[in-house]
Amino acid sequence: MxxxxxxxxxxxxxxxxxxxCVTFSSTRLASAQASASQNSTKxxxxxxxxxxxxxxxxxxxxxxxxxxxxxxxxxxxxxxYDKEGHIITNYHVVASGTNNNNNNNELQVTFLDGNVxxxxxxxxxxxxxxxxxxxxxISPDKLAPLPLANSSSLRIGETVVAIGNPxxxxxxxxxxxxxxxxxxxxxxxxxxxxxxxxxxxSIPNIIQTDAAINxxxxxxxxxxxxxxxxxxxxxxxxxxxxxxGVGFAIPSNTISKVATSLIQSGSYQHPYIGIVGLSLSxxxxxxxxxxxxxxxxxxxxxxxxxxDKAGLRAGSTTTTYNGRDVDVGGDVILKIDKIDVSxxxxxxxxxxxQKHVGDTVHLTVLRDNAIKELDLTLGERPNQPKIxxxxxxxxxxxxxxNDNNKSPQDLYDECVGVAGKxxxxxxxxx
Length: 430
Prior knowledge:
Blueprint: H1 2-6, E1 22-24, E2 28-29, H2 48-55, E3 59-66, E4 73-80, E5 86-89, H3 95-98, E6 105-110, E7 116-125, E8 130-135, E9 159-164, E10 172-185, E11 192-194, E12 203-209, E13 221-223, E14 229-237, E15 247-251, H4 252-265, E16 271-272, E17 275-279, H5 282-288, E18 296-301, H6 306-310, E19 317-321, E20 324-328, E21 332-336, E22 339-340, H7 344-354, E23 360-367, E24 370-377, E25 379-380, H8 408-419, H9 421-427
Parallel strand pairs: 1-14
Antiparallel strand pairs: 2-10, 3-4, 3-6, 4-5, 5-8, 6-7, 7-8, 9-10, 9-13, 10-12, 11-17, 12-15, 13-14, 14-15, 16-25, 17-18, 18-21, 19-20, 21-22, 21-23, 23-24
Helix pairs in contact: 8-9
């Protein structure tokens, strides 16, 4: 059991038990379209020490304490959003409190000066990995909100800084650049599932950075050299669980749109089509006899979904492609409104940045090697109690004392044998 908790050799891995951060083993490129929040002009870049001094009071440590678990405590980061005391963080930092009715769970927010305040959960969006909590019993003059930049104006090569609490080390700062834009955090390695029943949902328009992001940075801000938030640090790319220079942040334009809804209503409605499929490739097109070599091939459709109501067709014949069965013969989406579709990313990015539930989109599809036009009214993405995710494969907490009837000392000794004394001293608060 302990080896399952601490061996850092799997591609899908929660990096550390008490300090949640997600790793992913693959990414795909998506179009970087996003709605604007505030313009970031890059006219007043600051030296890094001055930058840290400016934002340090705005970055906090978010702790979810489970008083029923001797060793259980989740740790992440967050930042002050407004003078009302709202804090933005990741959903996976506070996830366990949203998936059970355990009244022993408590949220605490710690500022850099050491002051600790209780907090209430305001709202979560699993699909964007965002959450809003609200600090209690704090004076507004103690709150220094960080402004949101316009993430759609970001360019590859711009300097960015990640601030948070890696490994519980409060007030840590790392520097890097924007090393990629428009990434997609994948929900499934083998198939481009979007909005199908039971699937997990990909997050589009992700920022890639080489600023060091480690366990505990989750939920902390990625800021530009003016002190404006361009994203929220969320995940890293790793096949080993070790930071390898590729981190991911949810863009500020997504934060702005989702956080506003979470504060107002406690939830956010994502536009929904209800299809599952594959990005078409020249090899697959040739194999199944299609004239087009790009687009999104629909392999299945959720019953009763907007796609089903609009008359889209799913695959009806099974063939083998790249060693797995694929349902072919369905529609190929070539355009959504006037946007060319060459891969799944194009659909997701457009829907998330430009459309809302109830909007109508015009689809150009290839059916039986002929072009067909149809309209589709977007629905609301179905709620799921818990999304299938790499986070589900590993506990976000240290094993309890009763795990296999082992005491905390037994677990500590096994941890040292697997992960080393220094890491385990931190985990077990030695």
